[in-house]
UniProtKB/TrEMBL annotation, chain A:
<keyword id="KW-0808">Transferase</keyword>
<dbReference type="InterPro" id="IPR006130">
    <property type="entry name" value="Asp/Orn_carbamoylTrfase"/>
</dbReference>
<feature type="binding site">
    <location>
        <position position="102"/>
    </location>
    <ligand>
        <name>L-aspartate</name>
    </ligand>
</feature>
<comment type="subunit">
    <text>Heterododecamer (2C3:3R2) of six catalytic PyrB chains organized as two trimers (C3), and six regulatory PyrI chains organized as three dimers (R2).</text>
</comment>
<feature type="binding site">
    <location>
        <position position="286"/>
    </location>
    <ligand>
        <name>carbamoyl phosphate</name>
    </ligand>
</feature>
<dbReference type="GO" id="GO:0016597">
    <property type="term" value="F:amino acid binding"/>
</dbReference>
<dbReference type="Pfam" id="PF00185">
    <property type="entry name" value="OTCace"/>
</dbReference>
<feature type="domain" description="Aspartate/ornithine carbamoyltransferase carbamoyl-P binding">
    <location>
        <begin position="22"/>
        <end position="165"/>
    </location>
</feature>
<feature type="binding site">
    <location>
        <position position="244"/>
    </location>
    <ligand>
        <name>L-aspartate</name>
    </ligand>
</feature>
UniProtKB/TrEMBL annotation, chain B:
<dbReference type="InterPro" id="IPR004722">
    <property type="entry name" value="DHOase"/>
</dbReference>
<dbReference type="GO" id="GO:0005737">
    <property type="term" value="C:cytoplasm"/>
</dbReference>
<dbReference type="InterPro" id="IPR050138">
    <property type="entry name" value="DHOase/Allantoinase_Hydrolase"/>
</dbReference>
<dbReference type="GO" id="GO:0046872">
    <property type="term" value="F:metal ion binding"/>
</dbReference>
<keyword id="KW-0665">Pyrimidine biosynthesis</keyword>
<dbReference type="GO" id="GO:0006221">
    <property type="term" value="P:pyrimidine nucleotide biosynthetic process"/>
</dbReference>
<dbReference type="GO" id="GO:0006145">
    <property type="term" value="P:purine nucleobase catabolic process"/>
</dbReference>
<protein>
    <submittedName>
        <fullName>Dihydroorotase</fullName>
    </submittedName>
</protein>
<dbReference type="InterPro" id="IPR024403">
    <property type="entry name" value="DHOase_cat"/>
</dbReference>
Length: 343, 416
């Protein structure tokens, strides 16, 4: 295979019109059909990844930099595997080893990466908006692997792909009316924000649940229902999405203790009975077993999609890298974006 | 310096900045200056040997007194019709020693007078008292906590007792330190969607309530440099009604913009206090109309790319505001929020009264600080080509109406 075949789905505009973006910096920039396009594009990579030979040469000769200004193991690994399975040369840049520690500004770092003629940059940064700042300064596509509390779009896409596969197995297709409860540290969570945007864009009914200190102000303006009572939040939910409680927030000003957090907000087998009988349990990882989620729930073969999420993550990231590099690779129908579209 | 010929400006409409009487609104008249002083205002005819300038129907008003700037930026001030600026103590190093105050006080002369504001605590750290009395002798016209709020109420009370004794106003930055902590935005949909650390707008009212209470206890004059929320403005209004020595100000950003202006992580709209909700912006406009707000200042704080071309939370707050101060204030007249007489109060007379300097009005005997302004002159803000040291303005590319067409400091004509 020299090039990944352009989508065979006819419900999208032809060629590059199907995804008229230079970068993927946030779900907020995507129309609902563009989200579905990426999900559909990922299906082929799910299939590939389950074969014995998991490699194509679609991105052969391209250089991808994973620039992680914040520590990550899973997301970095997932992007690295995705790039390598597509045949690209993948380089990882860790902040700890970079000149960022020497006081170089983010813009200068971006200019440096740009000058190295890379073909895509994947960025994680601790400041909200940092990825957009870099994306505006470099010529190649930029993928957001998490910026501050703002967005983590590939996580939301992989979650949606996981949910859709689960729905299809049950003979359903539409996100409309799906009840999703997102529980945990909503305030500091980019995963929550991207998931709220994506799921509500596709018509799901999203509830968020957190102790008051970890609930953002005016969250209801994002078309979600806020809850502080976990039992009420998961009542009848089709999907229960748990968020990781950061260690540094487990005791002190935000919540009194991990023990109390588990008592009020931990997902236990008993509590899960309040959700719909078929409910799917998700967690972006890494988990704090015995804090936000109990092991018997996390490891439940019938209910937990946690390892499936990791699997879908690679496929989604392959789809994003493939789609965003098509213009540079000269894939037929994928003309360069006009200035006003990249601006 | 060669002695200047006496100057007479004829053909203008005089906006005198007088607090009472029938000369509040602009009226046809002339003004005559000799040396650095105004000698006659109103029904004046030029005398032989005078340099005569025809204002051609434009407004002739006192030079603007900008109460609370962070940088001495003459080109920007002169563009904006500003002849005096009160310099905030947040300087490198802070204005917490008499020698620094004395240097700042002489720094701009003769074409710009700087009125230094002394640091309320050493290093602006909120702890020990600096030599406020000696700094007053050195030229300090006020005392301020700078960009920060003094969190320790005991320290605040002692500073206020001291400023009351010295007869200096205390200029406070009203944001409760515990609530505002690491916040860079106001709680609300915008901050939540952008994932920015935010604080409730009530952080301002809490700080204002405490500061007013302590000022009343100490018998001090407190000036709240920026009041930006409805709740805090209500507190100021109530305090004024009971006769407390409270005054307050605002910068144009808070009556022009609400928090949606930071969308896209625009660091030029990163301000302190942060931009507020639309309802609060409307409350600021009402408070300008009803007289609760005494001063409009630029908060001039030019910041280059090294401070602004950063992720939003990492960028420094502040905007270059000197050039847009006058046109945005005149916009309030066009919007029927205030009249021209109030423009002179807000920009000239009130700042002078708060600082206790004989200026801010067109009256015989005062320094000849005069701005001739064309309230209708159109121009467009261009952040790449500002007079200011840096172009960090949230009003980039926006059309403005009104600017100074001639400016005199102590009778000396300046380039605007």
């Amino acid at each position: 295979m020299s090039d990944a075949p352009p989508s065979s789905f006819t419900r999208y505009p032809a060629g590059g019109e199907a995804f008229p973006h230079k970068d993927l910096t946030g779900i907020s920039e995507l129309a609902p059909w563009q989200i579905l396009y990426l999900l559909d594009e990922a299906e082929q990579w799910v299939t590939l990844n389950r074969q014995a030979t998991k490699h194509v040469d679609a991105l052969a000769g391209l250089t991808i930099i994973n620039a992680f200004f914040e520590n990550s193991t899973r997301t970095l690994l997932s992007f690295e595997i995705a790039g390598k399975r597509l045949g690209a040369d993948v380089v990882n840049m860790h902040a700890a080893q970079s000149s960022v520690k020497k006081g170089e500004t983010l813009i200068d770092t971006a200019a440096t990466l740009n000058a190295m003629q890379v073909d895509a940059i994947v960025i994680r940064h601790a400041s909200s908006g940092a990825v957009r700042l870099i994306a505006d300064k470099v010529d190649c596509p930029v993928l957001n692997a998490g910026d501050g509390r703002h967005e983590h779009p590939t996580q939301a896409l992989l979650d949606a792909l996981t949910i859709r596969q689960w729905m299809r197995a049950r003979g359903e297709e539409e996100f409309n009316g799906l009840k999703v409860a997102i529980c945990g540290d909503i305030l500091h969570s980019r995963v929550a924000r991207s998931n709220i945007l994506l799921l509500s864009a596709l018509g799901a009914e999203v509830r968020v649940c957190a102790p008051p200190a970890l609930m953002p102000a005016a969250i209801e303006q994002m078309r979600v229902s806020p809850y502080t009572n976990f039992n009420e939040a998961i009542d009848g939910a089709d999907v229960v999405m748990m968020l990781r409680l950061q260690n540094e927030r487990m005791s002190g000003p935000f919540i009194p203790s991990a023990r109390e957090y588990r008592h009020l907000y931990g997902l236990t087998t008993e509590r899960l009975k309040r959700a719909a009988p078929h409910a799917l349990v998700m967690h972006p990882g890494p988990m704090n077993r015995g804090v936000e989620i109990d092991s018997d729930v996390a490891d439940s073969i019938e209910r937990s999609a946690i390892t499936r999420q990791v699997e879908m993550g690679v496929a989604i990231r392959m789809a994003c890298l493939d789609v965003l590099t098509r213009r540079a690779r000269g894939v037929p129908g994928w003309e360069p974006l006009k200035a006003e579209e990249t601006a | 310096m060669r002695p200047m010929a006496p100057l007479t400006i004829t053909g203008g409409r005089l906006l005198t900045g007088q607090k009472s009487g029938d000369k509040r609104e602009p009226a046809a008249g002339a003004i005559r200056c000799d040396g650095d002083r105004i000698v006659a205002v109103g029904d004046v005819t030029p005398q032989d040997g005078d340099r005569v300038i025809d204002a051609r129907g434009k407004i002739v008003m006192p030079g603007i007194i900008d109460l609370g700037v962070f940088e001495i930026d003459k080109p920007a001030f002169h563009f904006g019709g500003i002849t005096r600026a009160a310099l905030m103590p947040d300087q490198p190093p802070p204005l917490d020693y008499p020698a620094r105050v004395r240097f700042a006080a002489s720094f701009g002369k003769p074409d710009l007078w700087v009125h230094p504001i002394a640091a309320a605590t050493r290093g602006l750290e909120g702890g020990e008292l600096p030599e406020l009395g000696l700094m007053r002798e050195a030229g300090a016209k006020a005392v301020s906590s700078g960009r920060k709020w003094i969190a320790d109420s005991g320290v605040m009370l002692r500073v206020l007792q001291y400023t009351a004794m010295l007869g200096l106003p205390f200029i406070t930055h009203a944001e409760d330190a515990g609530l505002a902590a690491d916040a860079v935005a106001t709680d609300g949909e915008t901050a939540t969607r952008l994932g920015l650390a935010s604080a409730p707008a009530e952080a301002e009212a809490l700080a204002v309530a405490r500061d007013i209470a302590l000022a009343e206890l100490a018998g001090a004059h407190i000036h709240i440099r920026q009041v930006t929320t409805a709740a805090a403005l209500d507190l100021v209004r109530a305090a004024k009604d009971r006769g407390a020595k409270v005054t307050c100000g605002v910068t144009p950003a808070h009556f022009m913009l609400s928090d949606i202006a930071v969308n896209g992580y625009l660091t030029f709209a990163r301000l302190s206090p942060p931009l507020r909700a639309e309802a609060d912006r409307q409350a600021v406009r009402r408070a300008l109309a009803d007289g609760t707000i005494d001063v409009i200042a630029s908060g001039h704080d030019p910041r280059g790319p090294e401070d602004k071309r950063l992720p939003f939370a990492d960028a420094a707050p502040g905007m270059a505001g000197a050039e847009t101060l006058l046109p945005l204030t005149l916009g309030l007249v066009r919007d029927d929020v205030i009249d021209m007489a109030r423009v002179a109060d807000l920009l000239c007379a009130n700042p002078a009264a708060i600082l206790g300097v004989p200026a801010g009005q067109l009256a015989a005997g005062l320094e000849a600080d005069i701005a001739v302004i064309d309230p209708d002159r159109p121009w467009i803000v261009d952040s790449d080509r500002m007079a200011a040291q840096a172009g960090n303005t949230p009003f980039d590319r926006q059309p403005m109406q009104g600017r100074a067409v001639a400016l005199f400091k102590g009778g000396m004509e300046l380039k605007t």
